Amino acid sequence: MKSKKDYDSKSCLNKIFFRLVFLILLGFMFSTKASFGQENLRKAEKSFRDWSVFVSKDDPKMCFIASQSIKGEAFRNNQKLSSVNRDKGTLYIIKIMKRDGEYEGTFYAGYPLQVGSKAVLEIDNKEKIVFFAHPSPKAKAEKDHAWAQKFDQKKLVDYLRKGSKAIMSAISHRNTVTKDTFMLTGFSDALLELEKRCKLN
Hints:
Elements: H1 4-8, H2 11-25, E1 46-48, E2 51-55, E3 63-68, E4 71-76, E5 79-80, E6 90-95, E7 103-108, E8 118-123, E9 127-133, H3 140-144, E10 145-148, H4 153-162, E11 165-171, E12 177-183, H5 187-197
Antiparallel strand pairs: 1-2, 2-3, 3-6, 4-5, 4-12, 6-7, 7-10, 8-9, 8-11, 9-10, 11-12
């Protein structure tokens, strides 16, 4: 599991995610016509089927691709719930600036996650990547997000490039198990576009 130091190093990133939460609450859809509605972010630069490219106007610049889940399910005591009060799950692949070809995978759950819990992303029923919820969250963004470990980032991107569908299983603070389905069509093209728009310099 990540150390507290690892999480502290993400404080700036978490602040940005806190702003992104507002957009998800408004139910925005990722498309070339959709705007974040925030001064620090532009509308999607370009969309490739299920994935869209976003570039901030802030300094330092932030670049990422994102996709919302096409299906969300919830279970309690192994029983499927007919409905739950939550936002759509969103998967982000953020480009780490100043480091060529390095990314960070982040999951927005749409609800407070169980503190320090694991969320597992399974790609095509073959490969799995574990994301971790914050061990001592304070800000809302820290409660609603989970992060892949640093040593898994390259594998995560490689799996998503090759895959067609990914399912994220996570646990809420109320012990509800959720499953979000993400389609991976357009992922590779979106990642290439991200590299073009967010070069090292």
